[in-house]
Amino acid sequence: MGGHRGTWGSQAGFILAAAGSAVGLGNLWKFPYLCWENGGGAFVATYLGAVVVLGLPLMMAEILVGRRAQASAVPAFAALGGPAWSWLGVLGVLAGVVILAYYTVIAGWSIRSFVLCLEWSFGGYPPDAGARFPAFLADGPQQVLLTTVFSFLTAFVVYRGVGAGIERASKVMMPVLFAILLYLLVTALRLPGAGEGLRHLLEPRFQDLPPQGVLLGVGQAFFSLSLGLGAMVAYGSYLSPQERIGRTAAWVVGLDTAVALIAAMVMFSLLHSIPGLPDRVSGSTVAMLFVTLPELFYTQMPGGTILAPLFYVLVAFAALTSTISLGEVATSYLVDRRNLPRGRATILSASVIWVGSVACALSLGAVPALSSLRVFAGKEGLLATLDHLAANWMLPLGGLGTALFVGWHLPAAAVASELGIREGSPAFVLFRWALRVVAPLAILGLLILVLTGRDLS
Ligand code: TRP
Q: What average pLDDT score do residues 413-417 get?
């Protein structure tokens, strides 16, 4: 029963809530366009490598820290490792704030797409639908409005607590999302360009992988699996001691990866089937989920007029189960470390993040100073800059810290008993080596390459 902190209702409940955090805009919006821009199959292969070598062990490591300490990240690292380790939690809180600020902007677009789809389902799909997107990006008031609505939704759920609400909602919505995605896939695979699309997506031709593709693949693995900032530490702290961490983590990782791959297959089939579509999305790659898919619904799919609005409700929900886990990180920090009551903690953190979100919302063309901000090559505007900073720097750093912490600092016996496996077993030895050596070297190597001025962009 797990004592006063409460636990997830069942193993499936945890898996779906953690998968709810993992499955989000990262899978539906980011992964397909990263694949498209970075050589297709070669990027997918890099990504899958990062998921297996770094993602799964780190997912297990985060859950393990949370369950052992029975606390969210900042107090958990402090309790198991001493006060010096709490910086790792603090870095995570900062990363959570940064990600949530821009993530909310994209999440808000799902509301607009929902409304547009209702309009299209009743009034017909206009031939210039895709061409309207750039004007929408630069529409400051509309961007701010959508962001504000989504910020409010996130804060509302976090305010009320994640417990039974999220778990129950995830159990209903996640299977529906899977079902619709599969239907999308079946439809997309019937398109004339599907074969070419799949070949582009699944055949690794490494000469097509740009050098920064490796960094982006690792960053995306962290982002998509909700790793590197302690979100899974918090979720793990509610996991019942009976559950096997390895098996549970494998489910979450598997579901997240499956959703990402299916989304990319759908997009690639479409992009290779509809003439002119690649040109329309390549100007703003962020458009894929919001421009490419309506095309499928309204021009190719039987029943698409019904499914299109429903789909964007589910995109909004997938985003919401992710924003909640991000918001929970900042809020629980203020509750645990600053002793604020949950209500005040939520309002304070949500307000700070909202200010960041508004700035990001205006960085897509509405306000020139924000839109032309350029820190990283090829990343124009505040939103793109924060995305690059968090996903490719903060999360890998957080993952590096977590790997070192669990691999070197925690006693092996404690780690083995928390995982429920013998210290000498092959699985444990593999796990430990992944955290002690493979993950740190891979992450460090990558960061050093970039820092020493290898122009990866
Ligand atoms: N994984 C989510 C996605 O792919 C985003 C997300 C939610 C996240 N919580 C996180 C990313 C915690 C990093 C850390 O959309």
A: 95
Mean pLDDT of 33-53: 94
Q: Which atom of ligand 1 is nearest to the CA of 25?
A: 15
pLDDT in tens, 333-391: 998 888 899 899 999 999 999 999 999 999 999 999 999 888 887 788 999 999 989 98
Q: DSSP letters along 210-245, please?
A: -THHHHHHHHHHHHHTT-SSSHHHHHHTTS-TTS-H
CA-based diameter of the chain, in Å?
65
CA dist 352 and 339 (Å) reads 18
Q: Ligand 1, closest atom to CA 24? A: 15
- Smallest CA-to-CA distance from 119 within 309, 337, 376 is with 309
Residues 143 and 230: their CA atoms lie apart, in Å, by 29
Residue whose CA lies nearest to ligand 1 atom number 13: 226
Predicted TM-score (pTM) of this structure: 0.92
Q: Within 10 Å of residue 94's Cβ, how many Cβ atoms?
A: 17
Domains and CATH numbers, the chain: 11-451 (1.10.4160)
The pLDDT tens digits for 277-316 are 777 666 555 677 888 788 888 988 888 898 899 889 989 9
Question: Closest by alpha carbon to 439, among 57, 122, 43?
Answer: 57
The amino acid present at 109, given as its one-letter code, is W
* CB of 398 closer than 6 angstroms to any ligand 1 atom: no
Decide: helix, strand or coil at residue 128.
Answer: coil
Q: How confident is residue 454, by pLDDT bands cut at 50, 70 and 90?
A: low
**Residue ID of nearest Cα to ligand 1 atom 12:** 226
Q: Which one, of 265, 263, 266, lies nearest residue 255 by Cα?
A: 263
